[in-house]
């Protein structure tokens, strides 16, 4: 009977120890699972945080790229406008130069025409003077001849 009681006591102790071990194993597994779940949750949170930061960084980069592109477009427009203004000023200046040249050409052609007209008038006047002088010389010769004839007749 004592053996049986000892054996029952041992069995009871073994059962108790087995239950305690099983309980400890269960608690250990639960703790491990909780730790794993916590680590997994932390990892997921970390991944989400990194994804969010990456998205924010991408959005920031897109925004700055857009600003940079707009700035470049504005610079290009500004350069094109300045070039257009320069070109228009140059064209206007060329137009003014052509107008001035045209006026100067017209003035020079008028001067040349006036000079040719003056020269023609001078030549005309000289010819008229020469013809008048010849006429008066002929007249003078005729007068002399007439005077001589008159003297002979007298």
Short structural description:
It contains 1 helix and no strands.
Helical run tally: 1
Q: Give the biggest sheet.
A: none
Order of helices and strands: H
Estimate what percentage of residues fall within beta strands.
Answer: under 5%
How many whole angstroms does the radius of gyration measure?
A: 64 Å
Helix/strand class: mainly alpha
Measured as a percent range, the helix fraction is over 70%
Rounded to the nearest angstrom, the distance between the terminal CA atoms is 221 Å
Global outline: rod-shaped
What is the average of the pLDDT values?
94
Per DSSP E runs of 2 or more residues, the count of β-strands stands at: 0
**Unreliable segments (pLDDT under 50, ≥5 consecutive)?**
none
Describe the protein's architecture and organization.
Residues 16-34 have a biased composition (Basic and acidic residues). Residues 1-34 are annotated as: Disordered. With 154 residues, the chain is mainly alpha-helical. Helices cover 99% and strands 0% of the residues. The protein is built from one helix and no strands. The protein has one helix at 2-153. The longest helix has 152 residues, at 2-153. The model has no long low-confidence stretch (mean pLDDT 94).
Topology:
Blueprint: H1 2-153
Keywords:
single chain, 154 residues, mainly alpha, 1 helix, 99% helix, rod-shaped
């Amino acid at each position: 009977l004592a053996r049986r009681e000892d054996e029952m006591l041992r069995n009871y102790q073994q059962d108790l120890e087995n239950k305690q071990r099983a309980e400890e194993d269960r608690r250990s597994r639960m703790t491990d699972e909780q730790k794993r779940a916590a680590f997994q949750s932390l990892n997921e949170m970390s991944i989400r945080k990194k994804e969010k930061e990456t998205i924010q960084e991408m959005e920031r980069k897109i925004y700055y790229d857009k600003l940079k592109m707009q700035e470049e477009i504005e610079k290009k427009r500004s350069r094109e406008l300045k070039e257009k203004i320069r070109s228009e000023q140059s064209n206007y200046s060329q137009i003014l130069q052509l107008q001035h040249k045209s006026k100067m050409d017209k003035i020079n052609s008028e001067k040349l025409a006036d000079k040719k007209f003056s020269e023609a008038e001078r030549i005309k006047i000289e010819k008229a003077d020469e013809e008048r002088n010849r006429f008066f010389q002929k007249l003078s010769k005729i007068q002399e001849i007439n005077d001589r004839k008159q003297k002979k007749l007298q």
